[in-house]
Amino acid sequence: MNSILKQLVSDTPATFASNTIDFVVSFSSIINMPALTTRDSIVLKSLFDPEASATHTTKHASSQTSLPGMAEHQFTIYRSTELQIISQLQEKSPATGTAQDTIDELSSLIKESPGYASAYINRAQARRLLIPLDGLFTPDHAEASEKLLKDLQQGIQLAEPKTSDQEPSTHQTTVLAAAHTHRGFLLLKIADIVRNGEQVHGVNEAVKSASAETIEEQASKDFAAGGQYGNKEAREMAVRTNPYAKMCGAIVKEALKKEHEEWKADQL
């Protein structure tokens, strides 16, 4: 893991689990947030409308649990509890109290089973509903932003394959696609804040001192991971934010500009 991502949030112990994740939040409740750009819409749509962005290119094992080590009957119980909890967010525009209730109940589930990765990812999404887009990583929402990042970090640590030859299960890929895409979006937000010369809150000094380009490069890597696990919007964002692609684009743009100027000179 890159040093920026390592230091993005404080280290938390990674225990193993088997998980799934279900997104029941209506995307319409997200797109109503103020100042939502086209780029933000693409990323957020991939978070809350996974069926629309899922691809069938990701390999996965036949196991129904996301990681080895959890008995199937335990997984079934935790999954059933989680589905019941997040069903509260099925309303078109979930109330603030509903989102907070969801966070509290998912916290109880996590306390009961700290290795259940998808509970962290769904809690991160519920936390996101309570933070306005322009409030991310600001003084008023520093603590909430930090908790959001920590949940995504922990979910990724729990769900990612422990060896290079381990094939993730269907549930595991869903968890990882969502978490990496969500974190990629947050990193882009941080990069925008840094680029505007403003201070980032809810992250440590290593992130605060990083350049916008460095942070955006990490976002691109998260989007690439999200795309690898089956999210096509994340794959698109990975291409858009890839520093080498952007550099090549700048070179082509400059070459075309020069060619145009030479053509104009020949016409004089």
What gap, in angstroms, lies between the N and C termini?
56 Å
Rg over alpha carbons: 20 Å
**Major β-sheet profile:** none
Number of domains: 1
Characterize the overall form: globular
- The beta-strand count equals 0
β-sheet strand percentage: under 5%
- Helix-strand string: HHHHHHHHHHHHH
* Poorly predicted segments: 9-36, 46-57
Mean pLDDT: 76
Give the helix tally. Answer: 13
What does this entry look like structurally?
This protein is mainly alpha-helical and 268 residues long. The protein has one domain. The chain is built from 13 helices and no strands. The chain is globular. The chain starts with a helix and ends with a helix. Residues 9-36 and 46-57 have low confidence and may be disordered. Belongs to the TTC36 family. InterPro entries: TTC36 (IPR038906).
